[in-house]
Amino acid sequence: MAKKLTIDGKEILARDDATIIEAAHEAGIVIPHYCYHPKLSIAGNCRMCLVEIEGRPKLEISCNTRVADDMVVYTQSPRVIEGRRGVLEFLLINHPLDCPICDQAGECGLQDYYMQYGLYHSRFLEAKVHKRKVVDLGPDIVFDAERCILCTRCVRFCQEITKTNELGLFYRGDTVEIDTFPGKRLDNKYAGNTVDICPVGALTSKDFRFKIRVWFLQETKSICPGCARGCNIFIHHHDGRVYRLKPRRNDAVNDTWICDAGRFGYKAINEQRLLHPMQRQGEAWQRVSWAQALAQVSETLQRHAGAVALLVAPQGTNEDCYLLARLAREVLSAPQVVLYPGEPGDEDDLLLRADKNPNTRGAQDMGLPPPVSTAQLASLVAAVEQGQVRVLYAIDVNLQQAFGADTLARLAGHLDCLVFQGANTLPGWEQAHVALPSCTYAERDGTFTNFQGRVQRLNAAFRPRGEALPAWQIYQRLANALGQSWDYPSAEAILADIATRVPAYAGLSYAKIGDLGCLVGTTP
Amino acid sequence: MERLTFWQKLYLPEILRGLAVTTRHFFANLLGQRHTVTQQYPEQPTRVSPRYRGRHRLMRKEDGSPRCTACMLCATACPALCIHIEAAEHEDPTVEKYPAVFTIDELRCVFCGLCVEACPCDAIRMDTGVFALAAYKREHFLYPRNLLLGDEEPRHIAEGRAPLD
To answer: Which of B73, B76, B96 is closest, CB to CB, to A134?
Structure first.
């Protein structure tokens, strides 16, 4: 059963247990709010979401009023606007004029609503209450008690989502403050989300603090490559540099959260990048052109046909994996393909997955073999040592973790050619003979399939840095150097091909995947 | 067009009249300089109006530290994108944020004054009256924070008279 009500003259069908604010937001009517958050319990303390309901004498808060049949709600009537102005004036009484030094400026609820509904001259003659500033709450969180409007979103987050209960309200009246309980630090694995949900500049991230003003940032929808969950994110970047990641709401995957490990994963886009194709001459690395590097790799692959192994970490997109599988199947003569996801990490029942790769499932859907553990790499080591494998093409693999430093050095000695392809200089890469730079997930289009089987889209935020190429372009050039004539113009064209060849992905397109992804079945 | 009178058509009388003006100024300047309109720049400093937008300077608080809080509103308002600021965390929590780097590229600057208008702290002004910013190297036009604060002498050729080094 649905309830039928009218908001601002618009007839709306709402869920039975919906609140007015939920019904309004679903209908595209935005009601200003601070303490309400769709994924947290209702607190009803900010009083900003006041609406007028016909037949009720007072303005009511829409976040804590359930819809009813034939309800008539006004969100923009003169009484409501006057009410909001009053609430805002109260909230701003003790708020410091920190905007020039506040990181939230530009995305601040107080600034936005003041410009929309406030615009009054301050009538406050008394001295403002001063509280603590620059309080160190945890490894990444700085708190400013003066700026806080006590909406308790962060407190509820730590109670209800992480269930770690670090935060509470202390003292009373206008001296009330948020703080950690004695002996506790705000250091849970999801603490960064408290900064995201803080509607004002009370909680700021040490990592992002003062790096850039938010109005310089551009936003690109993407997927976190930190684990098999595939949390939906926004990449916030400026001038080819990523400054932070923010969660993007997707109720089927990550609600409105991301973990801190994923949040700080952006550093790999900015730092320790492999930017140019390189060849090793003795001990020194020499920068070469793509043509030279690919000529060397294709020549080596041809010379040692039948003695080639591909060691792949499931970091590539479906498009990459599909072309790699085609390369292995159609171009190279029966190479040994090993899908190595690395050591499992920590896992919990909120977001974190033990598999720290974004596309282990998609890689298998695209025709790569099932993943192997570190111990199972022993057979590959043996094959190299016995001379059955003369060329090892490692893709996005942390070689040092896979083999250990000593074995890796020994392997490199046995091999005729060790090719390393990756976006970053992962440990062990320097043992390679040829290095091919691929671009990071922020610089390219593509799709990941998460552990649930949800295909989700990456969008290129900016041009690849240096001479880095999307991995699928490297495979295409390599295949063409080996006599093929592949001509995929874009990642989208590869997905169109996948949609016709891989039964589970039949009918998929970038348009169909959209912003929130598309669930696919397993490949039979 | 107005038609010339006979007297004007004769041409010579008007020439003489013009020469008379020149001669009058010649002797006036020779004997005293009351009527001189020519300024002897750069030998004599020129005067600019108080509202003239010259080279920028950064202001200080009473304790001598820069007034600038690195809010970047000037950099945001700047149409020439010539202001580069890097903010840093100040050890005093009541100050919190300060500009570790504040560089103005005077070669890119169009002297529009929008940075001065944008500043909420009156930290940047263009009231120095300095307009002669010639220098021998491009890098010398990158004015760092200490120069803008007045701690460091600009490396431009002062009043156009500095010899080549």
So the answer is: B96
What is the mean pLDDT for each group of 10 consecutive residues in chain B (165 residues)? 83 93 87 73 81 93 93 96 95 91 95 96 92 84 92 66 42
What is the tally of helices (H) and strands (E) in chain A? 16, 23
Cβ-based contacts of B120 with chain A (< 8 Å): 99-100
**Cis bond leading into A100, ω under 30°?**
no
Q: Can you count the helices (H) and strands (E) in chain B?
A: 5, 5
Q: How far is the C-alpha of B55 from the C-alpha of A261, rounded, in Å? A: 47
A130 touches chain B (CB under 8 A): no
Backbone φ and ψ of A28, nearest 5°: 85, 10
Distance CA(A419)–CA(A342), nearest Å, equals 18
Bridge partners (DSSP) listed for residue A205: A141
Q: What is the pLDDT of residues A100-119, one digit of tens each?
A: 999 999 999 999 999 999 88
Distance from the A106 Cα atom to the nearest Cα atom in chain B, whole angstroms:
11
Phi-psi region of A455 (alpha: psi -120 to 50; beta: other; left: phi over 0): beta
**Closest to A214 in 3D by CA, of A226, A205, A224:** A205
Give yes or no for A100 touching B (CB within 8 A): yes
Specify whether the backbone of A297 is left (phi greater than 0), alpha (psi in -120 to 50) or beta: alpha
Tokens linked to A114: 């003041």
Calpha distance A434→A395 (Å, rounded): 12
Report yes or no: B154 and B141 within 8 Å, Cβ to Cβ. Answer: no
**For strand B97-105 and strand B83-89, is the pairing parallel, antiparallel, or unpaired?**
antiparallel
By C-alpha distance, which of B56, B50, B75, B59 is closest to B122? B59
Please tell me the predicted confidence (pLDDT) of residue B162. Answer: 41
Tokens 């005093």 map to which residue?
B92
Helix axes A405-414, A378-385, angle to 10 degrees: 40
pLDDT at B157: 60
- Shortest CA distance from A96: residue in chain B: B94
pLDDT of residue A386: 92
Contact list, A134 vs chain B (CB under 8 Å): 93, 96
Summarised one tens digit per residue, pLDDT across range A246-280 is 999 999 999 999 999 999 999 999 999 999 999 99
Residues of chain A with pLDDT under 50: 523-524
pLDDT of A524:
40
Q: How far is CA A378 from the centre of its chain?
A: 34
pLDDT at B163: 42
* End-to-end CA separation in angstroms for chain B: 58
Q: Which residues of B touch A101 (CB under 8 A)?
A: 69-71, 96-97
Q: How far is B137 from chain A (nearest CA, A)?
A: 27
Instruction: Please name which of A297, A266, A301, A258 lies closest in space to residue A280, comparing C-alpha atoms.
Output: A297
Residues A455 and A505 sit within 8 Å (Cβ to Cβ): yes
